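Notes from hallway chat w/ T.B., transcribed later so I don't forget. T.B. wanted the structure written out for a chain they're using in a teaching module, and asked if we could keep both sequence and structure tokens in one place. Agreed to drop them here.
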Amino acid sequence: MTFTPRKLNWFLLFKIPSAYLSGVRVKDITETSVEVGVRFQWINQNPFKSMYWATQGMASELATGVLMMQEIAKSKKKISMLVVGQQGEFTKKAVGKISFSCVCGEELKKAIAKTIATGDSEQITLVSEGTDESGAIVSKFHYNWSIKLKAKA
């Protein structure tokens, strides 16, 4: 599959409908980075008139997960991926358009190459940073992903 924002957003609609309904959308994808956007709206608000933390979590995880999926597809190997840990920091109210970006593609390529070469599982921490329209950081998420070659049946 070619990874494009349009195809990934269709994927969201059918595989992660709660993210799609919350307004989470892939905006841009390159070899080493992914940008995911979400706009503050009624469906994703909290009682404090800002974006609910879980919506921010969906968008930030998607940014890291899409990068992981793209790199696994390029490897042409069957590799499983699983989030085994997560940490989030919130520094400002999330209102307006929020963009989450993950630019960890180079580190990810090395981790996947290592798991292919050794056959051992690897863990990598990918960071997704959320910024508002002014460029101010509203939240930052660290996802600890585990990757492993699938056993041949």
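Follow-up for T.B.: The helical segments are 5-15, 17-21, 53-75, 105-118. Might be a good example for the class.
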